[in-house]
Each structure stands twice: as structure tokens, then as C-alpha cells.
Amino acid sequence: MSALAALRERLNRYGSAVEDPGVLPLALPPIDDRLPRGGLPLGRLHRVAGGDPAGAAATGFAARLLARLQRRGPVLWCAAADDLYPPALAALGLAPDRLILVRPRDETGVLAVAEEALRTEGFGAVLAEAARTDLLAERRLQLACEARGITALLLQRRPIAPRAGRDGIVRAGASAAVTRWTVAPAPSGGTAAWVGPARWELALTHSRGGQPGRWIVETEDGTDRLAVVAELADHATETVDTPRRLAG
């Protein structure tokens, strides 16, 4: 019955759907080429998962995406945990006067607040932190995105463990997200005498209308910009032939 209610809700919204909000190019050709229409689809749900227990890399990537999206309006960061450090978010490009932090009691409240915010006109983007969500919850977020054309990020800091089905076969969990990303720390490009900029292994594991891919990206402290320094294929690193470009 819950799935039927969600379908009815979606059908009821067809007549009042907003115009296509377009895409957000990341200004990184190797990555944009894998995304539909050359950029991150706006007004849709995107999932960012950590590839390490701390989840710092995934949090940093999500913050940089929010920094790009805040140009469209104030952004909402909704999390039950009280471990965000606003000065660090500002260093990643998130302007304090464009960022609203909300701390519900639990992750059920996080998803409820995020859905309500997505149905409220004026936000540039909404980020919800939740360790695990089910398909119905993600579909509700996706429908809320479509209602106002607001982009949503679902941040899951720690790796998402595959689930075993009734047949005993372990499969990756289904998701309503249009793109799914996994971000993990990568070795710095510095030397023993100099620690280089932070690097991540960024994987686009699913892209509706696009293609998956994996890259080594380098961060630039104090900005929302990234640089692709290597592309990964067949579990091997291939140096990008084109000169390194910064996003932003």
C-alpha cells in the first residue's frame, strides 16, 4: 500500500511539475563526460557515500557540491549528529550566511525535515545525513525534488554494506538516487619533505543516463574547486593526458 500511495502521489504531481532545472557542470571534463548532458542533474536526488570509516572525504565532497549549489539559494544541512564544524565548512566554500544547519532528534526526523524543505520554495539545495535509508524513503525525497526543482544530497558517511536477499545472494541496495558516488581518501601527491594537497578516490558508481567512472581528484583548500589528476580503469591508474583543470 505504501508503494501504491507513492505512485499515486507522483501521478498527482505530473500536472504541476516544474520546468527542467538543468544541470550543474563540475568543470571537470573527464567527470562531466560521464554525467547526463554534461553535468550533475539539478532538481534530483544524489547519494554520496564514504569509502572509509571516518567519512571525512565524503563529507568534504558533499560540502563542495553544496558550495556550488548555494549560488542558486540558501542551502540546508540536516543531520542528527552534532559534529559539524562551521569554520571548516566555510573553508570548503560554504558561506555562513547561505548555510542553514538543522539538527533533528534522529534520522527519521532528518528525512522528514529534508522532505519538507525540498517542498519549500527558495532553497538552493538540501543535504540529509542518514546512515541507511530504504527505497521508499529515497523515492519520497526524489518526488519532493521534482515538486520544486530543488536538488537533494543524501550523505552516508560510512561505507554502505551490501544486503543479502531472501535467496542468500548479496546485492547492492536499490536506490532512487539519479547519481551515486563513493569517496575515499587517496595517497597525497607530495614528497617526504612536503605534504601535498588532499586527494580522494572518487567513484561514480551509478549515473542515470550517463556512465560510471573512477578518478583520483585533488582538493584545493579554501575553495570548492577540485582537480582531476588521474583516471582509474580496470583497477589501474591511468594518468590523464590533458592538463589538470580546476572546477569552479
* Biggest sheet overview: 10 strands, mixed
Radius of gyration: 18 Å
Low-confidence stretches: 12-16, 167-171, 234-248
Coarse shape: globular
> How would you state the average pLDDT, rounded?
83
SSE order, one letter for each helix or strand: HEHEEHEHEHEHEEEEEEEE
- Which range does the strand content fall in? 25-35%
What strand order characterises the main sheet?
5-4-6-7-3-10-11-12-13-14
Class from secondary-structure proportions: alpha/beta
Cα separation of the termini: 45 Å
Figure out the total of helices.
Answer: 6
Counted beta strands = 14
| Helix fraction by DSSP (H/I, runs of at least 4) | 25-40%
Write the layout of secondary structure elements.
Elements lengths: L1 H12 L9 E2 L4 H4 L7 E2 L3 E6 L5 H14 L5 E4 L7 H6 L7 E4 L4 H12 L6 E5 L5 H14 L2 E6 L6 E2 L5 E2 L7 E8 L12 E9 L5 E7 L6 E8 L2 E4 L9
Parallel strand pairs: 3-7, 3-10, 4-5, 4-6, 6-7
Antiparallel strand pairs: 1-2, 8-9, 10-11, 11-12, 12-13, 13-14
